[in-house]
Each structure stands twice: as C-alpha cells, then as structure tokens.
Amino acid sequence: METEEVKQNLYSSLKELGLNEGEISLYSITLAKGAISVSELAKQLEISRPNVYKVITGLEKHGLTQFGESNKYARKFSVESPMVVLEKLREKREKMQQLDHSLSSSLPDLLTLFHQGESATKIKVIQGKEQYLKIFNGILEQENKEIQFFGNVEDFVGFISMGAENEWIKKRMKKNILIKSLLLPGKIANQFQQDDVKQLRETKILKGAWPFVTSFQIFANKVIIWQPKAPLAILIEDKFIVEMLKSMFDKFWEIS
Prior knowledge:
Blueprint: H1 3-16, H2 21-33, H3 38-45, H4 49-61, H5 82-113, E1 122-127, H6 129-142, E2 146-151, H7 153-160, H8 162-174, E3 178-183, H9 187-194, E4 201-205, E5 215-219, E6 222-227, E7 232-237, H10 239-255
Parallel strand pairs: 2-3, 3-4
Antiparallel strand pairs: 1-7, 2-5, 5-6, 6-7
Helix pairs in contact: 1-5, 2-4, 3-4, 6-8
C-alpha cells in the first residue's frame, strides 16, 4: 500500500475516534519517531511547549498514550500501537450498532409520542423501484403494532415482485406486526386472504369498486400513496391527512 494511502487511512481512523488535528499530528509524529521529548514535539508541531502539554492531555483522554509514575512533562513518551486504534474503532462501531438497534426498536414508540401540532406538512415524492423498495421496507422500522393497506395489491406486488413482498411479510411477522388489507378483487388478493392466519394478516375484498391501480398504506403517523405505473410513491406526514384516510379505511373496512 502506498505511503500516502497509509497516512490517509490512519488520519481517517483517528478522526473517526474524535481526535482533533493537533492530536492526530501528535500521534502520527510520535508513531513514526518513537519516544520523543516535549521540546522536540514542540518543534515538530510548531507550537509552544504549554500547548504541546494540552495536546498530550487530549491524546491521553483517548487512551492512546501512557505515562509512568514520574512527572510526564519531564520525560519522553510514546503512543499506543495502531492495533489499539483498531480496537477502539471496533469498540465504537459495536456501541453504535447497539445504539442503532436500540433506537430502531424504540422508534415506533417514540413516533407515537411525536405530535405534529402546527408543524408544516411533510411530503416526499419517491421515484424508481430502488427507492420504492427502500421506503416500503422502512415501514417496518417505524411501526410495531398495526399497518393498514388499501387498494390494488395486484399492481403493487406486480411491480415490487412477489419475492420482495414475501421477504417483507417474513420481516413483518418476525416483528409481530399485524396488517389489515382492504383489497380490490384479484388472484393475489384471494391468495392473501387464504393465507391470513399463517401470515398475521386480516384481509377483506372490496367488491363493487371501480378498478384503479393505486393504493395507500397507513403506518405510524404517516401514509404512503403507491402509484406503480410511473412508478412513484408519495410519503405524507400530516396528522390531519392521516386521520382522514384512516377514517375512510375504517369505514370501508366496516362495511366490506
């Protein structure tokens, strides 16, 4: 590996650990030179000795240098091995993964505490299959109780593929999230209804409705309107629109 690339990798790793520019320079210089005096470091870093002490203290807080029992300012010192840097990076990433998992698990409950009030309505237009699937899978990170789906499941599943739908169903069941589906008549709608019990779903067929290709899905405090022909989806985060569509869903569900 080229020297410049090695330096850049070290710089990026130290930056990720939260070191500032002075601490990174101190670590890099000491790593290359071994044990070094404060006066020599002051020359190398082109700063005063008191400021070198401040940088040393900062580096100590990151656990990347050690001193013996004697006065640290009156002796040479060295930094920890790059292996220690790697270990600390791994520890940080493990903690971040744990936090990510904890926050993901808590997100549905946190969203129920969020009240939009007079905040501006949030509307996002999503285009293309990749973004379509991304937002579809993201539903399961934001809801932990119940989802409602209304509309044409034939065209929806026809676009995302039955494989993607089945994977989503597995994830939903693993999270123990119920879905109520009010669907236009069709082969997939009939199959869904037959599989309701084993797929944690309640399905009703909306008979007598004029055919249409769109659908909407309600979850958390949001609604997604799916239009698979363009394709595009519209994500709406608005308390009053969600309440209106949920009221419509509940009424059609009751009479179907």
